[in-house]
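User: Can you help me understand a structure? I only have the sequence.
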Amino acid sequence: MSGSLARLVFPALRWRRQSFDHEQAKIDAALAAGVGGFIIFGGTRAIVTALTDELRRRAGRPLLIGADVERGVAQQVGGLTELPPPAALGYIDDLEATRTCGVITGFEARSVGINWAFAPVCDLDLEPRNPIVQTRSFGADPTRVGEHAAAWIRGLQEHGVLGCAKHYPGHGRTTRDSHETLPRVLTPAAELQRVDVTPFEHALRAGVGSVMSAFVAFPAWDPSGRAASFSPEILGYLRGTLNFTGLVVTDALIMAGASAAQPVPSATVSAVAAGCDALLYPEEFRGVVEALDRAVGSEIPTSRADEALARYEQAAALWDSSADQGLPDLAAHGAFADGVADRAVHVLRGEPPALRAPLAVSIVDDDVGGPYTVGPRDVFTQTLREAGVPVEQRATRNVQRIVLVYAEPRSWKGRADLGARSVAALRRLAPASQLVVLFGHPRLARQIPGSAPVVCCWHGQPLMQRAAARHVIRWRG
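Assistant: Let's start by predicting it. Here is the structure, written out as tokens:
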């Protein structure tokens, strides 16, 4: 074998208290162990650029440095461009706009030293009770989702960043979140291959360089009940039938779906043996590396270990060597994003309201709680005030009320619908309101009582709050 399987391991580095300083011991140990790269969560442009430069300088070899950037690099790195969620792009259904989102993501990721995007989501929005896909999907039609994924991948990879089609063979039918359990999908294998796998086939034809497997079990396809990441049958279909030759990667190993059947070090051995080439976000990477190296020649055949290492080395050499493209034109990128966001906003129920000043804004936040803090919720009101629209503290007889509903798919949230507390607040607020703005999936409009117009704005990110506010300003005439 040509080296330690540490090259297949990718620890996560998280921004906390305005720095990555607390991660220094992890960085030292990971580089000493010989990991293949890192995953970045958070930071600013300057600090992420400095961090990725330091990691490469100290490693003295190519690294893959990845990030979750389904909605643009600003999803992780402050100061870069936010882009609408995939569902908004699917609604607009403009493949050139989707491709441009990939271009912007690639250009901006490279500018801060990130060369691996954990996107696009190729899952289908098939199951209304799905707590984790929803607006992260381009839609429900397999062919159209595949075309959008392919357009995004081409734009991304032509600008120097490795794409990752996820979560093979599809997370769209689950009713549970694989962050908190191992979901089971009972759909027959033939239907999964005909429907759910179709967007991944489009991604492969577009040349996507990596595919992320799901921590989801498909017992009608693999009767052992193993998650796809541990299934030689399901990964074998990707390799043998679909002829994929790039990197097969796991989802984050901190997820409960990864450790449902065995501890993480053993799980990573099973993943590599089944056909995975990269292991994302193990909490205790030292134990993982030790378990992998011990398993070579027994649970992991030497030929499989060599194949995985060769795939990693090839990807790292290819994607860590592209020429610097210079600084992104953030003003142009931002203007494009605003234009796409404006096109995605639409009235779901009723007619656009005739609003008059002053206005009062009430917030129903379905996303509070859980392990991660929510984003800013004051951008909508700030945008109104900056445009000269008076916003009062509360609605009175002469003040019209707008209700903002924030309801995103979030890890460990565990449900797709609005919670009881949110529904109770809406019963109190919505019937007397002039407008309800839904920062979530359009399906959730069914839970909003009363007859006030409902506007779909897809996601609570600042980009979509500003777009919603611009529409309200227009409706004031």
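Now, to help you interpret it: The two ends are 70 Å apart (CA to CA). The CA atoms of residues 31 and 59 lie 6 Å apart. Let me know which part you'd like to focus on.
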